[in-house]
Amino acid sequence: MRQIPGQAGGILSYFTRHPTVANLLLVILLAAGLLAAPNMRAQFFPDVIDDDVSVSVRWDGAGPEDVDSGIVQVLEPTLLAVEGVVNSESRSTEGSASIDLEFEPGYDMMKAVDDVEAAVDSISELPEEADDPVIRSGGWRDRVTDVVITGPVAVAQLGRFADEFVVRLFAEGVTQTTIRGLAAPQVIVEVPSRNLIAFDVTMQEIATAIAGEVDASPAGDVTGANARVRTGIEKRSAEDISAIVLRSDRDGTKLTVGDVANVRREGIDRERTYFVGDDPAISVRVDRSAQGDAIEIQHTVEDVAREFQAALPEGTRVDLIRTRAEAITGRLNILLDNGATGLLLVVVLLFLFLNARTAIWVAAGIPTAMLAALALMYVSGLTLNMISLFALIITLGIVVDDAIVVGEHADHMSRHGLTPVEASETAAKRMALPVFSSTLTTVIAFFGLTIIGGRFGDMISDIPFTVIVVLIASLVECFLILPNHMSHAIAASQKAHWYDLPSRMVNRGFRWVRERLFRPFMAGVITARYVVLAGAVVALASQAALFIEGDVQWRFFNGPERSSVTGNFAMVPGATRADTIAQMRRLQETTEALGREYEERYGRNPLDYVIAEIGGNAGRGLSGTESKDADQLGAISIELIDADLRPYSSFAFVGELQERAERHPMVETISFRGWRSGPGGRCARRAVLRRHRRYAQGRCRGP
């Protein structure tokens, strides 16, 4: 029986000598990647399961010490006994308590919530004045963009615009939206104590009378008519509630709620309100669903906003801010640009040192390995996010290393008398062990990242997996596909071609440098080896000194520059809503003035969008404001232009803004903060250090 050539040489010889098998594998890898890439979801961060359950209790009027002794110390021992709990953090503040429970990774959170509810229900020693405990399970929300609807119209009208906009988004499949800046109007009934005594009524009687009149009561179904009968008339306005009868005397006179109490309607502007300049605004936050694609959702929101804008009155506009999909698209563009640049540089350099055909086939390893890696990522359920894209970018310079080694050695062996097939086969066999060993060390180094636990470990787990699959794909392309193509490239390069002239000239010069310069230099290094070793030690010591002196600082996670800046402020007790609005206007004016000054200084205004709010703080709020009235809190959120378009950081802008911020006589504190990406903030570290410790006045809002 005739032996198939190369069969005795194993799998490397088989793929080298059989072009059909090698090309079929190449087509499979490319096709799998091309099919997987359009179907991969794009998002900002990987999906991270939040294994937390929080229990919060309101106790109005109670101090932090009373809350800690009456609620936290009663609830916490029972909650710590719940199955699966591995960590807890309690917080007691004026009027409220919260306990955060962390469960084992991968624990069934539905069962965890049920167990926590059962544990809370078994406790009967909570103060009677405290509200019922509220249990919330952990979850994630991945923001896509914020939509701001603003204009010179009433807030109520903006609210109707926001409702219609959300309905249109829902019709297009965008279901995760949150409207902010709009609160339903409320009717306030204030009863002076002297009136309770003068009219001989109680607050319970008033509350009962109002509760019986505000809603109509269902009276049953109308058979066959698909309708329901309701009795009574809903009384919701201030005038209707004032006319509710509390008591009818024998002489025919009636005592109404309006006779006893002051009834007024508080409008929408009494709650959190947003402003863009002088105009009110409504914010609609758009999040992606668990299976949503951030870039696709972004395009949908843009299309709906464009159509909706055409129907709005003059002066009213729809603005999109904090578009995370742009960051994802930018990272994808970086990947494509770096890939194209790297591919071009590899081709040029290999074209100079090797022949043109060898350079092309070696460079082909970049798209082949990347597409194969995308296919494996898709099968494994990974997505295109900021973490996995970072991993793909850092592997661009690695994937061609193996191919360069094998391709150059095959070319070298062909110049020593071996046939093209033998040269390619020998190069694959000789380089298999060293290349596999070097790749294995890189795989082991990145595989160590998988042992990092917790939420941070879950977030960066895409990095080791992505790097490992790219390296594996590179090995497959290098030893199973490239040798066959190299055999054809070497065979074609045995004749002198005009396009190989640069390679021949560079190699001639390279040999001259190697023989005349490099060899004598290395001989001198070996002769003066002790001097060279001493110089290396001195260089190492100089770098260690930089670290010891603190010139090179250690930072666990250095967040990248961000373009979002927030300024929160709180007014002193007794300040009115008008005072808060006045402070907000001062911050707006200062911000706009500083933006114009930066434009004169650097040639471009750094302000991309500015939105202010009254009724709360933006982002991570100020500590110690839990007991303040909402009207005494405010904030300004600033979106700066992209960091690549300005020669200064957001922190430099924040520092100058903090110095120039004008303070209202009734303001208590003003704090600006530039947002940073990534875990490990100052407040988070403090929360970790104080974990398992109860503290009365918490200064952080959680880790």
From TrEMBL:
InterPro entries: AcrB_DN_DC_subdom, Acrflvin-R
Transmembrane annotation, as ranges: 20-37, 332-354, 360-379, 386-406, 431-451, 463-482, 521-548
GO molecular function: xenobiotic transmembrane transporter activity
UniProt key word Transmembrane helix: yes
Keywords noted in UniProt: Membrane, Transmembrane, Transmembrane helix
Signal peptide feature range: none
GO cellular component: plasma membrane
Protein name as it appears in the record: AcrB/AcrD/AcrF family protein
Provenance organism: Salipiger profundus
